[in-house]
Amino acid sequence: MIAAAIGLLILGNAPQQQPKAARKSETKAAQHPSPQEGERSSSGAQDSGCAGANIANMSCDAATAEATIRQADLMHGSNIISLVTAIVAGAAAAFAWSASKAAQETLRHERTKSAAELRPWVKIDVIVSKFEIDEVGFSLGYTVVFKNIGRTTAQHFTFKMKADFSRLDTEIVNARFAEWHPPKDCSNSAALMPDEERGFSGFHSCLRHKIPWHGILKRKSASYVVTASAFYWSAMDSQWHRTDRSFSIGRKDDSITSGIIIPDDMVGTGPELVTVKPFWAGQTS
Questions:
Q1: Is residue 219 part of a domain?
Q2: Is 262 left (phi over 0), alpha (psi -120 to 50) or beta?
Q3: The pTM is what?
């Protein structure tokens, strides 16, 4: 009994061995796998390959996308640079145009200023040389003086003048100025040099009862007006210029009517009895 038990124990602990036929079958199966197992292996290999290809394609797409984004960034940056360049160029052009315009305006102003400073200017004054009034009548001798106060010659200088009793009315004087114009024929004109003056005398007489007396300050009186215009050509700006002036001649006294009126009760002889007062400047061009 004891020997049998020991034998069973030894048999139980000994390694189990497969039959030879089974081992040969397993070896053969390992060496020659079945078609199903081959297909599964091939399918697995294909899946692994496709997965690798997919990963490669994804990497390629990511690289392409990154390159596209980078190219877009470069194009955006290039567009910004182009825009900034265009803005700077536009600003530079605007500044250049403004500077050129300012330079032209400055040059035009300087030329105008130079022409105004160098051109002739003719002024007009009136001097009373004779005055007499009595119970019979009135007589007046006067001289209109034209003087070139400019810096260049007044070419083709001509003039118009008139003296008579008239109301002190600017409309009347302006109407007279409007009748006078520069000469069309300059054959009778003259040159008036700088600082040169020329006087042209006039004389007027009238019977006392024909004097157009009118009421001023509750008194009968008359106004005597001398009107004159000068016309001349300036070579500095190549155009005609004119000076219009009018003057009133009246009794010289200390009242507000000095040089404005000749009262109907005035009697006397001598130019010192009257004074000349500018009345209306008219036009100066």
A1: yes
A2: beta
A3: 0.62
